[in-house]
Amino acid sequence: MVRRGGVRRTRQPAATAREDDMGLDVPELDDTEYEELVEEARKLLPAYSEEWTNYNPQDPGITVLETLAWLADSYIYQLDSVTDEHRRKYLGLMGERPRGPTAASTRLSLSAPADETPLRIEAGTRLTVVDGSDAEKTFETDEAVVLTEADVAAVVSTDRDGTTEHSHANETAEMFYRPFGAVPEPGDAMAVGLSADPFDGTETLSLTVDFREEDLPDPATHGDEDATFEPSVDLAWEYPTDYADPEGSWERFAVRRDDTDALYGGGTVTLAAPEEWDPDEWGAEEAGLYGEPAGTVWVRCRVERGGYEVPPRVDAVRTGIARATNRRTVEREPLSRVRGTEGPEHLTAQQYRFEHAPVLEAEVWVDGERWTEVDGFDASGPTDRHYVLDAAEGVVRFGDGLQGAMPDPDARVVAEPYVATDGAAGSVPPSASWRFAEETTAADGTDLEAVSVTPRRGATGGSDAESLDAAFRRVRRDRKTPDRAVTDEDMAYLARHTPGLRVGRAEVFLREREAGPRDAPPEARVVVVPYAPAGTRRPAPSEGFLAAVQDHLDEHRLLTDRVRAVAPAYVGVETELAVRTGEWRPAPGVADDIEAALRAYLDPVHGFEGEGWPFGRTLYAEELAEVVAGVDAVDAVEDVTLTAPGNARVDPDGNVRVDETALFDLASVEVDVRTGSRPDETRGRR
């Protein structure tokens, strides 16, 4: 504690606090205490006045000196203090600011009574949620949805393996299916059967796809950068015009919207009703497709061009799904003056409060004129109609007449409109009870009380505004993230963190340029292996996948560097094995188990020691023998023969050596399973 002119207050360890915040060694300016300032001034008095001899506290001159020392000490203390406002300015200089609150959201399954369909529910329709907390939560629909009698009655996939029924999986929680099979190829299709005409009373059909993301890594992120990935896969949404003979009668829908990115993820696909739409005329009531009864109206999604890195996995396809977000839109709300800032003495510090907070967005009007939101008043002039919004507190702050215009004291300040949220509290669990708010109606005025609302899952994504300390921690963490492709490690990191992609591995190799002057520096080739489930053969990036990685590298590479993202090269290995089992009769599936073990060992993403087979590593026959010996029922490995075409080379010891950029693919496996002696033969030898 330091005494400052009769006031005792704690001296802040300023340098230590600022080192944590800014990562700099800042000198301590406030290193002289009040008593030291007074004593130093007293020592200087004889040099300026020989007549001044009374240095006691009751002397008026000493009183003035102590007052000046107190003022100097206060100014030094303020100079040495780093306030929250200073820290915000420092963040601003770095192009950062604390992040505002975010709103939770979820998908809802809506169902209306048959006698009320079709029923159009507009975007912004309000719902009330009870989750067991003290306060009800308010959500709003993100977009318009039309409820019809058409539900998904059947889901069928057709691929090279035939036709597969998925209707049960589509209706059962925790089950998923592959709409185009294990290896999607052109011509594979997913057909969706609807219980009624989906375009009865509406011009669009919206099908919501729940994508199965469990067991898959999250798509990569890199700071706040947006994903640039555009799928190479081409899908066609179609409908049959002849139910009696559907082959060759499928026509294309016009796709209004596809949030799924060609089924790379979940979302909504919106199809426009064809002008000639008439399923009754086409025989939907007389003939059924895919073994389903007549009366089912069919649409299908067909692969025109393949290229999936991971075959799509779907939990369900449904109609009548609406996305809702935790927010409350308020129109024309007069803002109230913050308590303590009323009166003429606070004209230069006017603050107004919203009724609901935190605030996601707002438009503020003063006496009928819209003002502009800014981050701060540093660049604001005396006549600039600017305001600063504190989203977390729900407070608007105006300028002081020098930096930013100052509203008249009797001005009417109105938010028209603004959007509030509950932040983290809006992330309600799946068990919460949902209903449309009282007196809420559909577009035609129908009361929505009879519409049932079922959440597909709990609302997620809600967060409170970021604190200043959290913002500094985030910025320090981000500054440690590679942002420039300078070293090989930087390039590999940036490739693996291409926004929106699931990259399994990335490795950098230097190669001579294919074109250019002889003395040109080499180019860096970034070999990219997309993530793929274990057992996937030759995982390779599609054109769109590779283009997204290339764009990300180009954004962060040095201007003079040549960096190129390329697909991996695979060397097919043919393996012949002779193994012996301890049983006189070979156990069923031994050869299959051996092949599975070898494929797992050579897997380019999950193999070897769990991080994928190393690029360019020699394949040793002895190591393969050890892998095979670890298979149940195998007692001994008697022979291993490896052959490989192309640039691979088999050395005298039977090992396969490849280029440093190559990976292996098990092209074929032939296993000669040799058994032990029959039990009666063993007894005879004894």
Topology at a glance:
Elements: E1 2-4, E2 7-9, H1 14-22, H2 34-48, H3 60-80, H4 84-93, E3 105-111, E4 119-121, E5 126-130, E6 137-141, E7 145-147, E8 152-159, E9 162-165, H5 167-171, E10 189-194, E11 204-211, E12 234-240, E13 250-252, E14 254-258, E15 267-272, E16 297-305, E17 314-318, E18 321-325, E19 328-330, E20 333-334, E21 336-337, E22 351-353, E23 359-366, E24 369-370, E25 372-373, E26 386-390, E27 395-398, E28 413-420, E29 433-436, E30 452-455, H6 468-479, H7 488-496, E31 503-511, E32 523-530, H8 543-556, E33 563-566, E34 569-580, H9 590-602, H10 621-629, E35 636-643, E36 649-650, E37 656-657, E38 662-674, H11 679-685
Parallel strand pairs: 25-26, 32-33, 34-38
Antiparallel strand pairs: 1-2, 3-18, 3-30, 4-7, 5-6, 5-29, 6-18, 8-9, 8-10, 10-16, 11-15, 11-17, 12-13, 12-16, 14-15, 19-28, 20-28, 21-22, 22-27, 23-24, 23-28, 26-27, 31-32, 34-35, 36-37
Structure description:
The chain is α+β, with helices and mostly antiparallel strands. The protein folds into 5 domains: 2-82, no CATH class; 149-318; 328-420, no CATH class; 482-566, GMP Synthetase, Chain A, domain 3; 569-679, no CATH class. It has 11 helices and 38 strands. The strands form 10 sheets. It has a 6-stranded antiparallel β-sheet with strand order 29-5-6-18-3-30, with no helix packed on it. Helix 2 crosses helix 3, helix 4 packs parallel to helix 6 (468-479) and helix 7 crosses helix 8. The radius of gyration is 36 Å and the shape is flat. The model is unreliable at 1-22 and 678-686 (pLDDT under 50).
